[in-house]
Fold this sequence. Notes:
By secondary structure, the protein is an alpha/beta fold. The protein contains ten helices and eight strands. The chain has an eight-stranded parallel beta barrel, surrounded by six helices. The radius of gyration is 15 Å and the shape is globular. The two termini are 14 Å apart. The structure holds SN-glycerol-3-phosphate (G3P). The site of SN-glycerol-3-phosphate has 10 residues, from helix 7.
Amino acid sequence: xxxxLDSADINEIEELAATGLIDGVTTNPSLAAASGMSFQELxxxxxxxxxxxxxxxxxxxxxxxxxxxGRKLAKIANNVTVKVPLTFEGLKACKALSNEDIxxxxxxxxxxxxxxxxxxxxxxxxxxxxxxxxxCGADGMQLIEDIVNVYEKHEFETLVLAASIRHPQHVYEAxxxxxxxxxxxxxVFRQL
Length: 192
Ligand code: G3P
């Protein structure tokens, strides 16, 4: 199982990547805003610290804008993975970008049917939000298990990236179930 850092803190990424145990990084607009750097500069710096996939999220709401932003982000470095939301427009953007061999992480997944559509749209990664589901009384890990099983059954190549991970027990369960990736805040990495 791969371990990604869910962080846009350059110092933290540098320090934890030095362990040799970090396989990639995921960022989101809130984390990026907190970094105080321009988004382009932030992603450029992270791609220099980590050789694995670095997710950079689009902010457009329509597919055409997401595709334009995604193409621009993908040019920053070979390991940039364009992150798009699991909306109707995001799925269209995913299909278009993956057709151009751009890595795509479809984020904000809250159901198995959504994960099915992302896989059909050619997503490299699907990011179900475990913690956010738990927050509202649903079972986030059950969704991870369902997606892992269904992708395996239908031989989808999309990798299951367990996101919105809050504590080590989430990592334990994701590993036990067979998620391909967990993305975790620096705090949870230290807790492991
Ligand atoms: O990886 C998704 C993450 O950035 C959201 O996590 O803890 O705010 O639900 P959280």
